[in-house]
């Protein structure tokens, strides 16, 4: 019976189509999207170069993280004033209740889409 390490180790890409490494064992020169972003980089349209794989112990399904080459990554595009404005409007919409039009200091739950006061009033109305 193969171990989880042998199922995840495929540096030639014969089994999965792209080079595959066990979790936390990627060679130097590769990084995930988050690791690139922490360095101020982005993939820049390059194809996936390799993947990390972790086998779930309970059900045996694999979890995969895609890797990109660091030397081909491009710098992150700077935020323009229009992008900042669009982001501010989007966050304002997430903080505003569509029923009572009150703006809160936190983002409303996407599960209900309304504030707690409107939710409580709606529950009382349906219970009566």
Layout of SSEs?
Layout (H helix, E strand, L loop, with lengths): L3 H5 L11 E3 L7 E2 L1 H6 L2 E2 L7 E6 L6 E8 L4 E2 L5 H15 L20 H12 L1
What does this structure look like?
The chain is α+β, with helices and mostly antiparallel strands and 128 residues long. It contains four helices and six strands. The chain has a four-stranded mixed sheet with strand order 1-4-5-2. The longest helix has 15 residues, at 81-95. The radius of gyration is 23 Å and the shape is flat. The N and C termini lie far apart (61 Å). The model has no long low-confidence stretch (mean pLDDT 91).
Query: Helix/strand-derived class?
Result: alpha+beta
Low-confidence stretches: none
Total number of helices: 4
Q: How are helices and strands ordered from N to C?
A: HEEHEEEEHH
- Anisotropy-based shape: flat
Strand content: 15-25%
Q: Output mean pLDDT.
A: 91
**Biggest pleated-sheet summary:** 4 strands, mixed
Calculate the terminal CA-CA distance, rounded to whole Å: 61 Å
Instruction: Report the helical percentage.
Output: 25-40%
Radius of gyration: 23 Å
Q: Work out the number of β strands.
A: 6
Q: What are the salient characteristics of this protein?
A:
about 130 residues, alpha+beta, four-stranded mixed β-sheet, two-stranded antiparallel sheet
Short note summarizing the structure:
By secondary structure, this protein is an alpha+beta fold. The chain has helices at residues 4-8, 33-38, 81-95, 116-127; strands spanning 20-22, 30-31, 41-42, 50-55, 62-69, 74-75.
